[in-house]
Design brief:
The protein is an alpha+beta fold and 480 residues long. It contains twelve helices and 22 strands. The strands form five sheets. Strands 1, 2, 9, 10, 11, 12, 19 and 20 form an eight-stranded mixed beta sheet that branches. Strand 1 (2-7), helix 1 and strand 2 form a beta-alpha-beta unit.
Amino acid sequence: MYDIIVIGGGVTGTCIARELSKYQVNMCLIEKGDDVASGTSKANSGVIHSGFDAKPGTLMAKLNVRGNELLYKLAPQLDFPVKQNGALVVCTDPAQRGDLDRLLDQAHKNGVPGVRIIEREEVLAMEPNLTPNTVAALYAPTGGVICPFNLAIAMGENAAVNGCEFKFETKVEKIIRKDGYYEVVTNKGTFETTAVVNAAGVYADEMHNMVSEKKMKIVARKGEYLLLDKEMGDYFKASVFPLPGPMGKGVLTAPTIHGNFYVGPSATDVEDKEGVNTTQEIIDDLIYKAQHSHLTKDVLPMNKVITSFAGLRAHEENHEFIVQEVEDSPGFFDAAGIESPGLTSSPAIAEMLVGIIQDKYQFAEKENFIATRKGVTHMADLSLEEKNELIKKDPRYGSIVCRCEMVTEGEIVDAINRPIGATSMDGVKRRTRAGMGRCQAGFCTPRTMEILSRELGIPMTAVSKKGKGSELLVGKIKED
């Protein structure tokens, strides 16, 4: 029997697993996908929010500000990239200037450090590509950008080396409350556990409703994006927001941690919790907004768009994080309704929830907890001398597989053989960026498949995009 089972391998679930792995706990994490960050966490804006737009006094506000602080501290320990590029909320209509003052007041109430309103001349000096119609902007220096799946991978790997088991392609079908423990019934068998942590994203309501009489409703809110080539990556330095509306922070334009540039997200509530398809209507709307943006000086060039994608946010009807033990189900803990700013808040959510768990169970701390982790070495980030030294040690680092992102065979082999290593094309892509460049895997797919086949000891026909059922090949045209 496990002490704790965590359901969900996104940023929230992996942060919780890592925090729990500091203690002497027999635990595992169950994820229905083939990898961590294969659900909500794989497709979002990657913005580290400062906390100025959360309603004062809410859990969202508190955990946003604390999570912002923790991410910058954890990044060097766990070797995941972050960049503190700041955030701007831009006002282009003099009649709406007062909205900036209200945001500033919220920021002060939430305890956001360094936030201030800056006038037109200073804003345009910071961001020359903003519209000349800029009136003023709220500036939050603690805003930043991060790679969401790199965060989940870092947390997951660190939890794994500290004793957390990971069970992928394992879908929870039923949770049965017993006398003092739970049975978690999955497509791969039944697991018994003293406690359950529900971090199931858009499915958190389904997990919760299996054990509680007080029902929960999570709505899948789809956000679609346009991703532009790295040629556009320095168009804005900061993450640039319009004044927020009723459906959220609005369509923003911002750089990514890896040097691309994006427009999005949209916000559409959908019934299908697997509905991450893009839609022509929304993409056309994003293109229109990109070309007629009231925030940019220029018309953004659509010939620089290299892909579009969509993700889902787990919207709870009260627009608030739920981080607590379920009142009528002792030992069942919810981390639910984790929509924006959930990515930023994830380490703070973990800190809070594990604190609640510790108050109940009083697990002993580990004396040998490993607090640090080294990520995949990316050749593109090294100096010429460092590259040559690494190639001397392992010639596979001298073999380029992905030309767009300059990813080598050595990096892909490392990604596959790490703790909770990549087992699919998407898994390799998230860890190395192979296939994320201008050609969108048009060149590197066959070679990456060959490496996966060799390293995993599986036939090429078993190599998948994202786990069982997404195999890329059906057989050979010609037998050897």
